C-alpha cells in the first residue's frame, strides 16, 4: 500500500486506459490494450501511473484467461514487458503482483511473455530464487528452447542471469542445460550464440561436474572447447571473445582442461591478455584482468608465460591512471565514467599482479620494478574501497614471498606501516591477507621486523589468536612464532605475557591442526637457547609438560607429534628443565615408545631427546645415563645403531658414545 | 588465399630459401671479407655460425625486402642450437646495413637478441624487451605495415610491440656470433607456431570496420541523395524500367531519361541477348535512326554477331524456318551474367561471373515470377569480359515490365500460359531478381548466386522435352536447309559490307579477324565443338549488347556508363594506388568485400 499523489489530469487519462481493460466487448479491450501499449512506450511516468492504478493485475488476468484471444494475450504480454522496461520500482511492483508465476504458468510459448519474463529476471531487484521455487518451470523453459531464436535468446538470458550458486548450477545441469543449450552455440543469431555462451560461463564456474561434462560435448561434430576457441578469434566481437575465454578458464580451473593444453596456453591466455590492453573498454579490461588472474593462480608456468605476453606487467600499470588528468579537464562525462571504474580497475590490476607474482621470483622482481609499483600498493592499502584494499594486500602478500623484496623494496617503502594500520580495523578477509603478509614481514631476515616489534604488534597478534576464524588464528600464532624465532629474552617474555598461558594451552587443543602446529612451533621457538628454556620451564613447566603429554597421547598427525617431541628435546637441553622429564616416568615411557615407532621422523626426534638427556659434560649426566640404562634405553639405542636410515643411525651412535665416554 | 592480404605468399617469403644461390652469394660476401666467422648454409635453411667475439658477428638477410602491400609480414626462426653463448639476433635491416654485425646494432637495423632478451633499435644498447631465448625456442617476427610496428613471438606467444615507426623496405635478417649457433628459418613453408592467421583476421576486421564506419559527418542528407541517385542511374542504365520507376517513387527522386526511351533500350538489349541480332538492328534503326549509320564499326560488329547467331540458329532470319528450334537456346544452362570486372585483381569475381546468369529486374523471387512475356524465347543474359574497370557492363532481364507494374494482374491466366509454352517456362527458370528489393544494386555486379544449379534443377523439373530440344538444336541453323541458304546469303552480304567499309575507311584488322572467325564456323561439322566455337556461347552477346546500349545512351546525351560503376572502378583504382604508394592497409581493403 502506497501513498500516491498524482495530478488529477494525469490520473484521468491514465485511468481511462485502465478502465478500457474492463470493457465487456473483447474487441474494445483489445483496442484498449493496444492503445495502452502505444502510450507507455518510453514513458516512465505513464508506466508508473498505470501500475499504481492497478493495470497490472488486470493485464495478468487477461493474459491468463482462457477466453482471451491469442492476439489479446500477446498484446497484454507486450504491455507488461514494456512496463518492466521502466524503473526498478516498476519491476518491484510487477513482481509484487506475482507476474512471474503468471508468466510462467502455461502459454509461455508467446515470445512476448518470455521477453517480459526476461526483462523482469535480469533486473537486480528480482530475487533469482523465483525461478527455482516451482520445479516444473525449468523443464518447461528447456522444452521451449527449440521454438525460435527469440525464445532461445530470452530463455538462455534468464538462465545465465539466474544461475548464481552451485545449487542453481546443479538444478540447471540436471535438467539437461548442457545438451539443450550446446547446439545454440552455432545458431545463426549472434544474440543467441552470445547468451548460450554466457550460460556456459556461469554453469562452468567453479563447477567440476559441469566442466567435466562440457569437455566431452560435441556441437556439430566439433568439441565444445574448439567451438569456444573459434569464438575467441580476434575478429569476433570482444564480448564473445571474453566470454568464451571465461568458459575455457573455468573449465581449466575445474580440472577439465590441462593448464598446458594449447587451447589454454596459445588461445585463452593471450586472449585474456588482449582484453587488458588499452584499446579495450574499461569494463572489459577489468573482467579480462580478473579472469586472467583466476586462470593462472595455481600454475607457475602460465604465470611465466603471461608475464612475457604483450608487456602485460607494464600494461597493467596503466590501470592506475584513471581518472586521467586529461579526462578531468576536457570531458565531464568521461571523468564520471573513469571515476566509476577507477576502483574496479585498480583492484583488478592488484589481483592480477598478485596472481602473476605468487610463485616466480623473477616475475616478482619485474612487478616491483614497474613504475611506482610499491607506492601504488602502499596507497592501495589505505583506500576507502574494501575491494581495492583487499586486492592491494593480496598483491603485497604475493610479493612478500620474495626474500629479496622483503629485504629491499618492502623496507624502503615501509609497507609495514599501512599494513599495521590495515590490521587495526578491517573485515576478516582483509585481515587474513594482511596478517598473512605480516607473518612474512616478521621473518628473521626481514628488516621490517624490528620496527614492527616496536609498534606494539604483539597485542594485536594475540587478539587474532582468539578469533573465530581458523585462518586468523593460524596467522596470529604464525606471526608470533616467527617473531619468537631467535628473539631475545625480552621479546619472548612479552609474547608469553601478552598471550597468557591459558590462551597458549587453549591453542594447543585447537581443533585446527594448523593452529596446533604453529603453536607448537611457537613453543619450540620460545624454548630455544638454554637460559630461555630454563626460564620458561621454571615458570610454566608444569602446564607445558601436561600439554605435551596430552598431545603425545592424543590422535594427532605425525607432524604434530614430531613437533612435540622436538619440544621435549629442547626441554631436555635445558639445565634445570631436564629434570622435568627425568622425573616424569610417563613421559620417558612415551619417548621410549616413539624411539621404536615405525616412523623414522618420530624415532629421530625421540632419540634426539634422549641424546640431550644423557649428554656428558653436564651436571648429573651420570645419574641420568644410569637411570635411562635401567629403563632399557641403551638396548633401544643399540638397536637403532643398526637402523637403515643414516640420520637415525648416526644420532643413535652419537648417543651411545655418551655412554662410552 | 589471394595475393595481397597474405603475408606469406610464396613469392614474398621464399626469397630467403627460394633464391638459394643469391643467398649463398650474400654469405660468400661475408666470408670474402676475411672474417674467421661466417655463416654456412646446408641444403636445409640452417644457418650455422663459428665466430668468437662481436667482431665475428655476421648476419644473413633475405634477398628481397618486405613488400609494403603485403600488409602483415611474418617469419619464424627456430633456434636449433644456441652454440657457445647464444648471441643471436633476429630482426630486420635495410639495404646497405653492415652485414658483419647483429641486427639492431646499426642504423636502419632492428633486432631481438637471445642472450639478454633485449630489443635493439638501431643502437648498440638494447632495451629490456622480452625473455631470453635459446635452443629449442621458436622466435617469430611480425612486421605490421599498416601501423609500421613490429612485434616478436616466442613459442607462439606474442611478446608485444618491439619497434614503432619502422621505415619501408626492410629485409628479414638473422645474425649469429658465437660458434655452433644454428638457426632454421621458416617463411611459411611449414606451419607457424604463432597463429598469424588470427592476428591478420583482427586487422582485416579492423580495416573493414574502419571503412564501413567511415564518418560522413554533416553530409548525411547529401549522402543519401547521392546514394539514391547512384542506384537510380544504375537501374535506368540497365533498363530496369519498372524497378527504377518504383525506386524513384519511393525515394522521391527524378529519372532523367523518359520511360519509353528506357523501355526501348531494354527491348533492344533483350533482343541482342536472346541472339536475335537482326531484330535488334532493325529496332535500333527504327528507334534511333542514324545511330548505326554513323557508327559503322558497331553496325559491323552487330552484323558479324548476327551471322554467328544464324549459325547458332537463334537469329530470327533463320528461326522463321524452324518450328522447334527457337526454344533451344533458352534452355542453355550456363546463362551468361553481368560480370563487370573492377580491376584485374579479382579472379574470384571473374570465375563467379562465368556461371552466374543475368539479373533480371523482376522484384519477385525467381520461381514465382509468372510474367507475361511479350517476347517468348527471349533468353537472359549479358556479360562483359572487358578487363577495364570503366567498361560498361550490364545485364538484361527477360522479365517484362508487366511483372512489376502490374503485380496483381491475374496470376491464374499467366499460369496457363506457362503450361502452354515451353519457352515461357524456361524464361521463368531464368528469372532472377537483381536484389533491388532487398538490397542495394551492388548485387548486380557479379551474380554470386548459383543460377546454374537452379536452372538445371528447374530444367529437370520441367522434364518434358527440354533436354531433347537442346540436343536437337545443335545443328547448323537449326538444321534447316532454307535457313542455311539464307545464312550463306547473309554471309555474302556481310563480306560485301566489309569490303565497302574498307573502301570508305581503309583496312581494318579487327573487322577482318571478326569476319574470319565467324566464317570459320562453317568449316566444321560441329561448330559448337570447334576451335572457334566459343563464339556461339550466348555469353559472347554481352559485349556487343553493352556496346550498343552505351552507344544509344551516348546518342541521347546520357552518360555511357552508370556512376555506380564509375565509383566501383574508382575505389578499385584507389586500392591499387595505395599499393603503389606502399600503404600497408591496402592489402586488407578489398572492394569486393563490400560487394555482396
Structure description:
The complex is a heterodimer of chains A (661) and B (596). Chain A is mainly alpha-helical and 661 residues long. A two-stranded antiparallel sheet of chain A has the order 1-2. Chain B is α+β, with helices and mostly antiparallel strands. Chain B has a 7-stranded antiparallel sheet with strand order 1-2-13-4-9-10-11. In chain B, α7 (259-273) packs antiparallel against α19. Chain B is elongated. Chain B starts with 9 loop residues before the first helix and ends in a 16-residue tail after the last helix. The relative contact order of chain B is 0.11. The A-B interface holds A 233-235, 265-267, 269-270, 305, 308-311, 315 and B 130-131, 154, 156-161, 195, 198-199, 201-202, 204-205.
- Give the DSSP E fraction of chain A (strand runs of 2 or more residues): under 5%
Give the low-pLDDT segments of chain A. Answer: none
Beta-strand residue percentage of chain B:
5-15%
Distance between the termini of chain A: 97 Å
- What share of residues of chain A is helical? over 70%
- Spatial strand arrangement across the major sheet of chain B: 1-2-13-4-9-10-11
Biggest sheet architecture of chain A: 2 strands, antiparallel
Q: Report the span from N to C terminus of chain B.
A: 19 Å
Query: Which residue ranges of chain B are poorly predicted, with pLDDT under 50 across at least 5 consecutive positions?
Result: 1-45, 323-472
How would you characterize the largest beta sheet of chain B? 7 strands, antiparallel
Mean pLDDT of chain B, to the nearest integer, reads: 69
By helix and strand content of chain B, what is the structural category? alpha+beta
Shape of chain A from CA axes? elongated
Write down the Rg of chain B.
32 Å
- Rounded Rg of chain A: 34 Å
Please provide the count of β strands of chain A.
Answer: 2
GO biological process, one term (chain A): proteasome-mediated ubiquitin-dependent protein catabolic process
Protein name (chain A): Armadillo repeat-containing protein 8
Pfam families (chain A): Arm (PF00514)
InterPro entries (chain A): ARM-like, ARM-type_fold, Armadillo, ARMC8/Vid28
